[in-house]
Amino acid sequence: MDYNEKQVQIIETAEKLFANNGFEGTSIRDIAQEAGINIAMISYYFGSKEKLMEAIFAYRIKTTFLKMENIINNDNYTPFQKVEKFIEHYIDKMFGNQCFYRLMMREPYIQEFHNISDLVYEAKKNNLELAKKVIHEGQKRGEFRKNVDVGMMIMTMIGTANHFVTTQEFYKRYNNMLEMPQVEFEKHMRKKLYHHLKTLFKSILTHEEK
Amino acid sequence: MDYNEKQVQIIETAEKLFANNGFEGTSIRDIAQEAGINIAMISYYFGSKEKLMEAIFAYRIKTTFLKMENIINNDNYTPFQKVEKFIEHYIDKMFGNQCFYRLMMREPYIQEFHNISDLVYEAKKNNLELAKKVIHEGQKRGEFRKNVDVGMMIMTMIGTANHFVTTQEFYKRYNNMLEMPQVEFEKHMRKKLYHHLKTLFKSILTHEEK
Amino acid sequence: MDYNEKQVQIIETAEKLFANNGFEGTSIRDIAQEAGINIAMISYYFGSKEKLMEAIFAYRIKTTFLKMENIINNDNYTPFQKVEKFIEHYIDKMFGNQCFYRLMMREPYIQEFHNISDLVYEAKKNNLELAKKVIHEGQKRGEFRKNVDVGMMIMTMIGTANHFVTTQEFYKRYNNMLEMPQVEFEKHMRKKLYHHLKTLFKSILTHEEK
Amino acid sequence: MDYNEKQVQIIETAEKLFANNGFEGTSIRDIAQEAGINIAMISYYFGSKEKLMEAIFAYRIKTTFLKMENIINNDNYTPFQKVEKFIEHYIDKMFGNQCFYRLMMREPYIQEFHNISDLVYEAKKNNLELAKKVIHEGQKRGEFRKNVDVGMMIMTMIGTANHFVTTQEFYKRYNNMLEMPQVEFEKHMRKKLYHHLKTLFKSILTHEEK
DNA sequence: GATGAATGAGGATTCATTCAT
DNA sequence: AATGAATGAATCCTCATTCAT
Fold this sequence. Notes:
The structure is a homotetramer. By secondary structure, chain A is mainly α.
């Protein structure tokens, strides 16, 4: 399960190409060429193209979906601070691993065919339950409204964030930001997303129904 | 630009398969077999696989992104009723054309290579501007808060709705609804989404900042 | 065996395309498009693509390889004048039917597969024997040398003339005549060829061996 | 640019089939079957059918159009001996590479579409200029007539020789030589062609105009 | 451990032809 | 008489994978 330098290089190259062109739209030749390695090495290291896909998921889910617990269990934060941290964390992860997130979005079916279904399911479930825990805590402490559908809130956060990534190109074009350097643009996006989701959650969690 | 019965059948079959398996993951053979037609007919009718993809977009965007104006311009509705109608309409369209929406989500790159880029851009822009119009109207009438980022609200609506569709399988499994018939499940989802987004928008648009 | 206007149009279009791109390199669609007729008409009129090829040969050989006898049997001409007429006639025919001649040159195998083998054989044989007749007449009258290989002379005439047509493009480029209008260029070529072959034949037929 | 054994085998097989059936009339399957190799190997080695055609030309022109200079520059030969050697050399090359010569004759257009145009042009030009050099030398030494159109003489040589190859089948049939073994037949043809062209050139180059 | 050569399977597309009208 | 729709066969090419080295 530990990948050497070359294997990691292959994984990351493949991830990028799969995200851009899809699993079937990317050939092993493409990956080998982009990564500067021999074509046969992919089958050699991973067994097959499918197994490489599995490796990507295993690699990312392991290194990506961890360490959320630390935030949740830090007692120095108020419930809403925890929510904020949670949002920040998700956004940071997503921007830091855009390719992988785009890949997950575009190849949902891939789960069914390969041995990653459970992995992904567990990661999502884990995420959801952490969020529930935070919000329930806030409710118990009387700081959040009672009748909040936590599942829907999480979907809103993830959906909005994901769509943000997906729709970047439209956004750029619509707002005449095509010339802005990618790094700056991402910074802008990220900040905007932070603010929006925090405001949204605050509004939902603390707004009194009339 | 008018497609006969057989052409529509091909378009809809291809749309489904492209949505499930991707453009490159779907062979012309697959489409022909599923649609019960001869393999050569696809090239015969559409010229190529790529042109078929273009036809799908042209077909759907034309028939899907219309008639939203009627809602917006109906003076019998209050601004918030218009927002509700807008949300309903988007959700209905999306559930009614799940395949196409999933296809758009998974193949964003396809726009760049083919002649659908502008089509999609215009549709999205049109959508966004209609939403802006409604909300600005509510603001002018003092019924909505002033400092609402309309763009972000739309992204939230679309992102949440899209994610809802994408994540169905996880949702089913997580909530032990795997046995529920698809039709009933969708009804359930749709209702839930209606409610959630309306509540969300109400909260955002009318909640007074403290 | 009599072709109507449309059939002739198809034949001539096909002849041109076959000459330029070869039999297999030309599709029925190409011919139909170029001739401005329906695709099905070719099979309808001629039965098949192969039969169309046969029709071209039948059509051209009939109308092309005739009337040579008149020259030969005209008693007002001296033997060498007859040779000159013969040369002129061949060159004129060839320039007037360049496409057909190029077609014959590039598709010699086609004879074996189709029913035109005998047709072509007879035409060639007829040509050769007419030439022999003229030259033998000149020899009998003591005006031509005795030991002339008539077959080789004919091959020289035909080969040179054919090569002239084939190598036009090289000739143009080599002599900086790329800008010259095709009509003028052909006139130039034809004149040159007349003169060359006549001189050649005169030299061969009348030159006394030392 | 150096081809291994298998590549050469493919090139020579393809050359033969292209010469007989044309570029478009020959399928990759045909070539693979005749050469006893896997179909995919052709694309593997050459990239495409077109590139294979280019390879044939590159291969032949390189190995075929060389070493003529040696003859020309050999000072032991008289000008007419050089002409004879030149003729012999051309005929030998042509009979030794009949397929390639037939291929060049039947696919002149192929030059325009592919990267061999210049290659062929240079080879032809080179050939022509060597011939000119020889004849001009003879003229300078007063052994050849002054007013000889060297270009036309070369065309005569090449055209006659080429036509000889093209028309073999007719010749055989006409002269009842269908039963003669090919090797013996070729020997006969070659000898005949030697003699004819040498006589022809002698007559033209040395015959005094009256 | 690492790789270049080789291949069978399957990809999209074009083809000449047929048939109902 | 003439044609648009439709199709099975064949086209070239790319694919992921294997194997001897």
